[in-house]
Design brief:
single chain; 454 residues; alpha+beta; 2-methylcitrate dehydratase PrpD; 60s Ribosomal Protein L30, Chain: A; 2 domains; four-stranded mixed beta sheet; 6 strands; disordered C terminus
Length: 454
């Protein structure tokens, strides 16, 4: 029997987390910084959204010592509360990063508690980066082991796996032993939740916030001596099988410590579900090729079963729009852009947009991989034009550059109505490995605070 099955997956992962130093992950720091820049961009973009404000107002009366920053705002909470709110804001607009093999959005549930805890404890930037990289490794490897069936069963994998990354990362920051880290991961297994049915509602963001908050909580409990079953993940009645899947331990543990999942991370150019990006790009291509948009009679979008399951839906609100084939087509063809304003309520309910959505049809093409799309337009003249996109902008094959992510952050400051200083945030994140106290990074980002520590 393999050693991993004797000692448990939690302990095997914990051994990696405990043994890994900055020197072991320094080569991954640039991608980690890109992920954290993108995290700030998306959190700032929704800093004053009602969903964020309501969550913050709900927690404020119950917060302990206000040690940790709420991104884009003046209010502060204890570390657990800040982890919850910042994970919500980073995930809210469907604009966060994506691990392509699992469709996990890895940074929100891990960076939020790591930054909140590090700020509360005055930790070094290298500790933050090391813990973050390890947290992403743990959540994505566990996601690999249960994909794609886990998501297909209705589990929101960012939430259900994100908690393991949060627990492992926070346990690393707390300096826990191998046993302590393994227990934190096992405790997280009892708190993992989130379902796909809730994606068009704010309940989706609650589960992402809980992944961040409860992962930190699991690490704090483990620090105080709480224990968990050694096979809480892969046991006969453990997390994976309880959620309907036999875990693939080869995908979970193969190459552990040799390859890094953070290197596969991708960043969205559009605030919509990742499977719709090829649809948007195909429509941009068609828009450049045709003359008058008012000559379009029918638009047919062909793609995988995942694309249709996620996006062939009626649009009742802005959340629906971000996961709608029909709305993505309408924005890309009619407006020619697909940014945050195109998925806001004002645009979603524009009469011309709503009318154009009625022209869009979705059809299954089982030959198309997830993340690809073929879009065909039939004009009033009878002419048909087709555009196929296999690797959309922002994918591993066509990634966003550093300047793209910086621009996204600056846009986030503007669209989110924040008074934070974008250039200071950008400078601080790129220099995170040299920061003596992460509190200085969080403080210098606010225009209301003149701290300039780096």
């Amino acid at each position: 029997m393999p050693q991993s099955e004797v000692s448990g997956v939690s302990r095997t992962l914990a051994e990696l987390v405990a043994a890994t130093s900055w020197a072991d992950v320094a080569a991954q720091q640039h991608e980690a910084k890109r992920s954290i820049l993108n995290f700030f961009a998306t959190a700032l973009g929704s800093a004053h959204d009602p969903a964020v404000t309501i969550a913050l107002q709900t927690l404020l009366p119950f917060s302990g010592a206000a040690t940790s920053t709420i991104i884009g705002r003046d209010e502060r909470l204890d570390a657990i509360g800040a982890a919850f709110v910042n994970a919500i804001s980073a995930n809210l607009l469907d604009f966060d990063d994506t691990h392509p093999e699992t469709i996990i959005h890895p940074t929100a549930p891990v960076a939020a508690p790591v930054l909140a805890l590090a700020e509360a404890r005055g930790l070094h930037g290298r500790n933050v980066l090391t813990a973050f990289i390890l947290g992403v490794e743990v959540e994505c490897r566990i996601g690999n082991a249960v994909s794609p069936r886990h998501y297909a069963c209705g589990w929101h994998i960012t939430s259900t796996c994100g908690i393991f990354g949060a627990a492992a990362a926070c346990a690393k920051l707390l300096g826990l032993s191998v046993d302590g880290i393994a227990n934190a991961i096992g405790i997280a297994a009892s708190q993992s939740a989130g379902n796909v049915e809730n994606l068009p509602t704010a309940a989706k963001n609650v589960s992402v916030g809980n992944a961040a908050r409860n992962g930190l909580f699991a690490a704090l409990l483990a620090q105080q001596g709480y224990e968990a079953a050694p096979r809480a993940i892969e046991g006969p009645l453990g997390w994976a099988r309880a959620m309907g899947d036999d875990p693939d331990l080869g995908r979970l543990l193969g190459g552990l410590g040799e390859t890094w999942e953070i290197s596969k991370n991708t960043y969205k150019p559009y605030p919509a579900g990742i499977v719709f990006h090829a649809v948007i790009d195909a429509c941009f291509g068609l828009r450049d090729r045709i003359g008058r948009i008012d000559q379009i009679e029918v638009v047919t979008v062909r793609g995988s079963a995942l694309l249709l399951a996620r996006g062939d839906r009626p649009v009742r609100n802005e959340r629906d729009a971000r996961v709608s084939i029909h709305h993505c087509v309408a924005c890309a063809l009619l407006i020619g852009t697909a940014g945050v304003p195109e998925f806001a309520r004002e645009t979603v309910f524009r009469p011309d947009i709503a009318k154009f959505r009625e022209k869009v049809r979705a059809e299954l093409d089982s030959s198309m991989p997830d993340g690809a799309a073929r879009v065909s337009i039939r004009l009033a003249s009878g002419e048909a034009i087709t555009e196929t996109v296999m690797s959309p902008r922002g994918s591993l094959a066509d990634p966003l550059g550093d300047r793209d992510i910086e621009a996204k952050l600056r846009d986030g400051v503007r669209t989110g109505g924040s008074d934070w200083d974008a250039d200071r945030i950008i400078e601080s994140v790129w220099r995170l490995d040299t920061c003596d106290d992460i509190a200085g990074v969080m403080q210098r980002a606010s225009s209301n605070n003149s701290a300039l520590q780096t």
